[in-house]
Amino acid sequence: MRSKLPHPLIVKTFVIIRRVRHWLVGTTVISLLKLASLFPADPTINVVDWLARRIGPKTSRHKLALYNLALAFPEKTAEEHEQIARDMWGSMARLGVEYVFLDKIFDLNIENPSQGRVEVKGVDIFARLVDEKKPFIVFTAHTGNFELLPIGAAAYGLEVTALFRPPNNPYIARHVLSARRTHMGHLVPSRAGAAIALARRLDDDGGVGMLVDQKFQRGAKTTFFGHAVQTNPLLGKLARQFNCSVYPARCVRLPGGRFRLEIEPEIEIPRAEDGRVDVPATCQLLNDKVEEWVREYPGQWQWFHDRWAIKRKLRKRK
Q1: GO molecular function, one example (predicted)?
Q2: Residue 300: pLDDT band by 50, 70, 90 thresholds?
Q3: Where are the beta strands (DSSP E) in the chain?
Q4: For the chain, which residues make up each domain, given as ranges?
Q5: Is residue 206 within 8 Å of 150, Cβ to Cβ?
């Protein structure tokens, strides 16, 4: 027997309810960000951090964060997991409100990159990439304020076309995209056609930036903190197609509302016996690098992301 399809009126009602909910949430978030922009940057960011550390643990995502932390750090105590999760809520809240203060917080001294609010490690690599005019890929993770990386690259004259995943809420997505376009140069939303756009950029001897720590359905089978995950193979496929250099980069939050942008030396991409880039092995290499970063600063990574695809398991436990 064929299963009955939902009545069109029911489907339409569901769509309308979802749009209204998105509008309400989006309008609230955007209004709060606009309100925040009326106050001094540092006190506002600190207040938001303080609130997030208290509100975040009351959300449903906190349970997922703690479960993820238990998977990643079984040697740590429940109290340590809780502290890392609270640090994460503070860091993520800072990231959200820092959008409206980008012009104020991005204080980079080009002549002396170790000074200023934003310091840079790997200036020589930025300079070489500008001079070489060869295709390259820079990858990063959702750590610190990762949004500052393309701004930092642009400050040294390096244009990078960044792949990003828009928020699910369309109203928030438009607002975030507007802010990113103002400060971050070329952007490619992660939807159909994104791979082609990035390939064109590399074909023109340009640079591409990618976040590589998100769950990806039908991705390469890899591990992260010793547990099975699926990883987006796009970076490996592009590296194989264009035989381009690949560089790790990250943003680290420092005390006093400061940041350190780091671009590391080129990594050696794994290759198969025929000399071509080994895509699955490359995916594992990316995960290993991100794990190294997260272990160093665990409170600066997004533990509420369902990286290990365990949300269904949590629902069954209820």
Answers
A1: acyltransferase activity
A2: very high
A3: 118-121, 136-140, 160-164, 187-189, 207-211, 220-224, 227-231, 245-254, 258-263
A4: 8-101, 106-300
A5: no
pTM: 0.86
First to last CA, the chain: 33
Contact 245, 134 (CB under 8 A): yes
Question: Do 148 and 311 form a contact (C-beta atoms < 8 A)?
Answer: no
Residues 133 and 122: their CA atoms lie apart, in Å, by 18
DSSP 8-state secondary structure symbol assigned to residue 77: -
Q: Give 246: exposed, middle or buried? Use CB within 10 Å, 0-12, 13-18, 19+.
A: buried
316/223 Cα distance (integer angstroms): 24
Please count the other Cβ atoms lying within 10 Å of the Cβ belonging to residue 13: 12
Going by C-alpha positions, the residue among 93, 156, 88 that lies closest to residue 125 is: 156
Alpha carbon of residue 15 to chain centroid: 29
Q: What CA–CA distance (Å, rounded) separates 301 from 286?
A: 15
Q: In whole angstroms, what is the distance from residue 78 CA to residue 67 CA?
A: 10
Return the amino acid letter for 206: G
Nearest Cα to Cα of residue 76 among 84, 65, 64:
84
Q: What is the pLDDT of residues 154-204, one digit of tens each?
A: 888 888 888 766 666 666 666 666 655 545 556 666 666 788 889 999 999
